[in-house]
């Protein structure tokens, strides 16, 4: 995004425009909708501009621009439609400290004016950074058609009623009230005239105050390893209807995009060894929103039941008497093993597979290293980057073959996925060398299928 859209408060502030022809008139028409203090500088003002001056809507300085003319101006428009004159006036305005726009010249403009759909106080600004003015016009036309002309009036009356509506508890109840107003009752009432709106609002508030509280609910949803196509349909539906989405740091932005547009997104980002939101605070957050009547989606990476501290959150819900359900997701081990073309279990090799964590709350996690050290064992090690040297040492100490294949998969299923095949002997060294920055899973006892095939071929040749 090269241009950041903002709404500038112009009431009582100076806006200066140099020019007196058609380009000036077009910009002034827009600017006259604001409460800015407008000054036009031009030796030859068009009739329309003079009419605005006569109505007291702006001031005209009847000469070419001079240094100091834009003193204290927030915005300056160069609208003389003459390249040299525009460059000159822009230089003067910048020296006076104003932000400048040169009409029809994106390159030289410090700010640009978007296409506007005006339903004051509702204003929609459309920008394409100059890439496609045709597209901006089409979107504007579409919105002009779609947004009722009385939307502005509805919003104005609604705004004056906000304090009254605060009688409703914050969150879903209040949102339901306003949605009912804007999309049902309000539009109906305003068809009878603006005077009918306020009484309609009062009746509506009464109704909403008397309806039973909506019951909140928490879905613990698996967000999968990152690729949005690896979400389940259930996960998508839950995101579609969520009021609040409380998500982990590992959840990709593409997946968050799928949340209902009005949903509140809360990042409860937890980073191994790093700064994080305390588990109790996350529990409290979930309970708070569900108690307010929200449909909460607690979105966890991979599968929520795998190293997700799910139980603590379920207990918190139970203690608060809140209903919940679990939507399973594709865990990092499944995505990682798929990416190297292997199986987690294989007849004749391993009849079981272990999901291990590299560290727990106390530090590096201990496991039954002796069993793991046996030949043919397979384990998916989560959060294993920092513990690599520890795991390597323990396994070798318990008799594991240093040549055991190990594969690290970083960002499994994502566009920036990296696969790093190594061996137990080289694990710590190779992980350090690889400088991994994304989430990484260590598959112990597995090599990518292609490498595996090459290795077994070499072995066959050696024995032949
Ligand atoms: N519940 C998650 C695991 C959370 S623990 C799941 O089922 O996948 C976080 C760890 O998961 C990370 O440290 C990393 O080891 C692993 N992980 C999560 N997403 C990953 C991905 N896209 N690629 C590789 N590892 C991933």
TrEMBL record:
<dbReference type="InterPro" id="IPR000878">
    <property type="entry name" value="4pyrrol_Mease"/>
</dbReference>
<feature type="active site" description="Proton acceptor">
    <location>
        <position position="248"/>
    </location>
</feature>
<dbReference type="InterPro" id="IPR006367">
    <property type="entry name" value="Sirohaem_synthase_N"/>
</dbReference>
<dbReference type="InterPro" id="IPR006366">
    <property type="entry name" value="CobA/CysG_C"/>
</dbReference>
<comment type="similarity">
    <text>Belongs to the precorrin methyltransferase family.</text>
</comment>
<feature type="active site" description="Proton donor">
    <location>
        <position position="270"/>
    </location>
</feature>
<dbReference type="Pfam" id="PF10414">
    <property type="entry name" value="CysG_dimeriser"/>
</dbReference>
<dbReference type="Pfam" id="PF13241">
    <property type="entry name" value="NAD_binding_7"/>
</dbReference>
<keyword id="KW-0560">Oxidoreductase</keyword>
<protein>
    <submittedName>
        <fullName>Uroporphyrinogen-III C-methyltransferase</fullName>
    </submittedName>
</protein>
<keyword id="KW-0520">NAD</keyword>
<dbReference type="InterPro" id="IPR050161">
    <property type="entry name" value="Siro_Cobalamin_biosynth"/>
</dbReference>
<dbReference type="InterPro" id="IPR014777">
    <property type="entry name" value="4pyrrole_Mease_sub1"/>
</dbReference>
<dbReference type="GO" id="GO:0032259">
    <property type="term" value="P:methylation"/>
</dbReference>
<comment type="pathway">
    <text>Porphyrin-containing compound metabolism; siroheme biosynthesis; precorrin-2 from uroporphyrinogen III: step 1/1.</text>
</comment>
<keyword id="KW-0169">Cobalamin biosynthesis</keyword>
<feature type="domain" description="Sirohaem synthase dimerisation">
    <location>
        <begin position="151"/>
        <end position="197"/>
    </location>
</feature>
<dbReference type="InterPro" id="IPR019478">
    <property type="entry name" value="Sirohaem_synthase_dimer_dom"/>
</dbReference>
<dbReference type="Pfam" id="PF00590">
    <property type="entry name" value="TP_methylase"/>
</dbReference>
<keyword id="KW-0511">Multifunctional enzyme</keyword>
<keyword id="KW-0627">Porphyrin biosynthesis</keyword>
<dbReference type="InterPro" id="IPR035996">
    <property type="entry name" value="4pyrrol_Methylase_sf"/>
</dbReference>
<comment type="pathway">
    <text>Porphyrin-containing compound metabolism; siroheme biosynthesis; sirohydrochlorin from precorrin-2: step 1/1.</text>
</comment>
<dbReference type="GO" id="GO:0043115">
    <property type="term" value="F:precorrin-2 dehydrogenase activity"/>
</dbReference>
<keyword id="KW-0489">Methyltransferase</keyword>
<keyword id="KW-0949">S-adenosyl-L-methionine</keyword>
<dbReference type="GO" id="GO:0051266">
    <property type="term" value="F:sirohydrochlorin ferrochelatase activity"/>
</dbReference>
<dbReference type="InterPro" id="IPR036291">
    <property type="entry name" value="NAD(P)-bd_dom_sf"/>
</dbReference>
<dbReference type="GO" id="GO:0009236">
    <property type="term" value="P:cobalamin biosynthetic process"/>
</dbReference>
<dbReference type="GO" id="GO:0051287">
    <property type="term" value="F:NAD binding"/>
</dbReference>
<dbReference type="GO" id="GO:0004851">
    <property type="term" value="F:uroporphyrin-III C-methyltransferase activity"/>
</dbReference>
<keyword id="KW-0456">Lyase</keyword>
<dbReference type="GO" id="GO:0019354">
    <property type="term" value="P:siroheme biosynthetic process"/>
</dbReference>
<keyword id="KW-0808">Transferase</keyword>
<dbReference type="InterPro" id="IPR012409">
    <property type="entry name" value="Sirohaem_synth"/>
</dbReference>
<dbReference type="InterPro" id="IPR014776">
    <property type="entry name" value="4pyrrole_Mease_sub2"/>
</dbReference>
<feature type="domain" description="Tetrapyrrole methylase">
    <location>
        <begin position="218"/>
        <end position="427"/>
    </location>
</feature>
């Amino acid at each position: 995004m090269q241009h950041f859209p903002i709404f500038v408060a112009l009431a009582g502030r100076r806006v200066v425009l140099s020019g007196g022809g058609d380009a000036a008139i077009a910009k002034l028409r827009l600017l006259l909708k604001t409460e800015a203090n407008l000054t036009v500088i031009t030796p030859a003002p068009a009739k329309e501009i003079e009419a605005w001056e006569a109505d007291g809507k702006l001031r005209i300085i009847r000469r070419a621009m001079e240094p100091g003319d834009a003193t204290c101006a927030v915005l300056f428009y160069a609208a003389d439609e003459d390249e040299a004159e525009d460059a000159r006036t822009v230089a003067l305005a910048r020296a006076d400290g104003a932000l400048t726009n040169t009409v029809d010249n994106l390159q030289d403009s410090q700010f640009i004016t978007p296409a506007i759909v005006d339903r004051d106080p509702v204003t929609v600004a459309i920008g394409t950074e100059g890439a496609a003015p045709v597209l901006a016009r089409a979107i504007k036309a579409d919105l002009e058609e779609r947004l009722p002309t009385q939307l502005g009036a509805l919003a104005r009356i609604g705004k004056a009623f906000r304090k009254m509506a605060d009688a409703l508890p914050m969150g879903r109840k209040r949102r339901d009230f306003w949605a009912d107003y804007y999309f049902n009752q309000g539009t109906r009432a305003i068809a009878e005239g603006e005077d009918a709106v306020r009484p309609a609002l009062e009746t509506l508030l009464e109704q909403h105050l008397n309806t039973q509280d909506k019951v909140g609910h928490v879905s613990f949803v698996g967000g999968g390893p990152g690729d949005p196509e690896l979400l389940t349909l259930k996960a998508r539906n839950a995101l579609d209807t969520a009021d609040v989405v409380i998500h982990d740091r590992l959840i990709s932005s593409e997946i968050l995009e799928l949340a209902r547009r009005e949903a509140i997104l809360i990042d409860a980002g937890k980073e191994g060894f790093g700064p994080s939101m305390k588990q109790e605070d996350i529990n409290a957050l979930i309970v708070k929103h569900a108690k307010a009547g929200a449909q909460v989606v607690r979105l966890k990476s991979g599968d929520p039941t795998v190293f997700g501290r799910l139980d603590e959150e379920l207990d918190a819900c139970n203690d608060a008497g809140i209903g919940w359900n679990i939507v399973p997701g594709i865990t990092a081990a499944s995505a990682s093993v798929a990416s190297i073309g292997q199986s987690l279990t294989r007849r004749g090799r391993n009849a079981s597979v272990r999901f291990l964590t590299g560290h727990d709350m106390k530090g590096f996690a201990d496991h039954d290293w002796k069993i793991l050290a046996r030949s043919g064992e397979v384990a998916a090690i989560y959060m294993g980057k920092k513990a690599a040297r520890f795991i390597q040492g323990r396994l070798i100490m318990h008799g594991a073959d240093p040549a055991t294949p190990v594969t690290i998969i970083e960002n499994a299923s994502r566009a920036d996925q990296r696969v790093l095949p190594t061996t137990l002997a080289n694990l710590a060294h190779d992980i350090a060398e690889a400088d991994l920055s994304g989430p990484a899973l260590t598959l112990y006892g597995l090599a990518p299928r292609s490498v595996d095939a090459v290795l077994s071929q070499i072995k066959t040749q050696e024995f032949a």
